[in-house]
Write a structure and sequence with these properties.
Structural class: alpha/beta
Number of helices: 16
Radius of gyration: 23 Å
Helix content: 40-55%
Low-confidence stretches: none
Strand content: 15-25%
Largest sheet: 6 strands, parallel
Distance between the termini: 20 Å
Shape: globular
Strand order of the largest sheet: 2-7-1-8-9-10
Length: 364
């Protein structure tokens, strides 16, 4: 009789705190320990239904990164979108999703561990009885919470979460800690949380690379026209600079930054020139004014895409900043970076012992 697998739900105290990255790094470590894992995301958010079937993009990406066979990828039951919410509110969707969860997820009698990515926060999914806590209850799953560090006050959300999750809380991952704060988190926050019965399984330092966004993603979000180097949409932008000052100040400011996107007016030719000669990954020109030919040919030469947007500077900057806050991991270099960070900072053995799993490597 095969033993039934354990269930682990990866949740977070708020959206965009790094759940997918944690899943990606963690599942890689589990595989290296020789464990047979199944992965799924019952409640989908980034959906692609072009082929008629609903495919959650993150699930697809993670399954590919881990080389999971089809029978090790659990189905996404529902897309959390406007249409499904309306159906539910109108009473047209009477599905008992907890029942579906039991049928689709508890049937997985093979493997060691079913790793599930939970909703974005504690309230998401309540309408369908698929909130983090409801899922944990139905599947009898342990919960690992990912929390993005903001300040020492991040402790508040974790204490509240412990109150709600109770004994199901296997531990927490504190993510995106600025290097200057690592000491304080380690000496103040970590011991305090441990005393409160909240195991800190990882403290992950901030990474510019992980926060970076591709030029292609910026084009999509800004609905920009690409004026040159359409072939370099894969370049990664780590910071944003606004070229609104005089050219001498601009040059000093640009020299301090790396891998930036520079937002400036289409008429600010001297700023464009200064940006091209520093660590710039793309120029974003506002006001729909085309740059002069010599700027275009210099950008061609340096392989720096120039984007033109039909927006004012403030709106452009807002959209870019919002995009930085909602970074996706779909670049191979980021996958490497996440694996590296997690293998250096995540206490995998402590997690396994809390789940009562023994690595296959230790068995053989």
């Amino acid at each position: 009789m095969p033993k039934s697998p354990k269930y682990l739900l990866i949740g977070s105290t708020e959206t965009y705190s790094g759940k997918s990255a944690t899943v990606l790094g963690l599942s890689h470590q589990l595989q290296q320990k020789g464990l047979d894992i199944t992965y799924g995301k019952p409640l989908g958010t980034c959906l692609n239904s072009s082929s008629g079937t609903v495919i959650e993009e993150d699930v697809q990406f993670i399954a590919l990164s881990l080389n999971l066979p089809e029978n090790r990828v659990a189905p996404t039951m529902l897309a959390l979108d406007e249409l499904n919410v309306q159906k539910r509110l109108r009473g047209e969707d009477k599905t008992d999703y907890q029942q579906s969860l039991i049928q689709q997820y508890l049937q997985m009698s093979q493997g060691d561990l079913v790793l599930l990515e939970g909703p974005g926060d504690f309230s998401e999914g309540n309408l369908f009885d698929l909130s983090l806590l409801q899922m944990a209850e139905v599947l009898d799953a342990g919960v690992l919470l990912v929390s993005r560090y903001k300040s020492l006050l991040s402790v508040e959300a974790l204490l509240a979460a412990k109150g709600r999750v109770g004994d199901r809380l296997i531990g927490v991952v504190i993510n995106d800690i600025p290097v200057t704060q690592l000491e304080a988190v380690n000496t103040l926050l970590r011991p305090f949380l441990e005393q409160q019965g909240i195991p800190v399984l990882a403290m992950l330092p901030s990474s510019d690379l992980l926060r970076s966004i591709s030029v292609g993603e910026l084009v999509k979000q800004l609905k920009a026209d690409v004026l040159c180097r359409n072939d370099r949409m894969d370049l990664l932008v780590e910071s944003l600079a606004i070229g609104a000052m005089n050219v001498n100040s601009a040059v000093k400011y640009f020299r301090k930054r790396r891998n930036m996107a520079v937002v400036t007016g289409g008429d600010r030719v001297e700023i464009q020139q200064a940006a091209l000669e520093t660590s710039t990954q793309c120029l974003i020109l506002t006001g729909q004014l085309p740059p002069p030919p010599f700027i275009l040919s210099r950008a061609e030469e340096l392989e720096i895409p120039i984007l033109s947007v039909d927006l004012d500077t403030l709106t452009t900057v807002e959209i870019v900043n919002r995009t930085f806050g909602q970074v996706r991991l779909h670049e191979p270099i980021k996958v490497q970076c996440v694996r590296q960070l997690m293998s250096e900072h995540f206490d995998i053995d402590r997690l396994l012992s809390k789940l009562g799993l023994t690595p296959a490597a230790a068995l053989s």
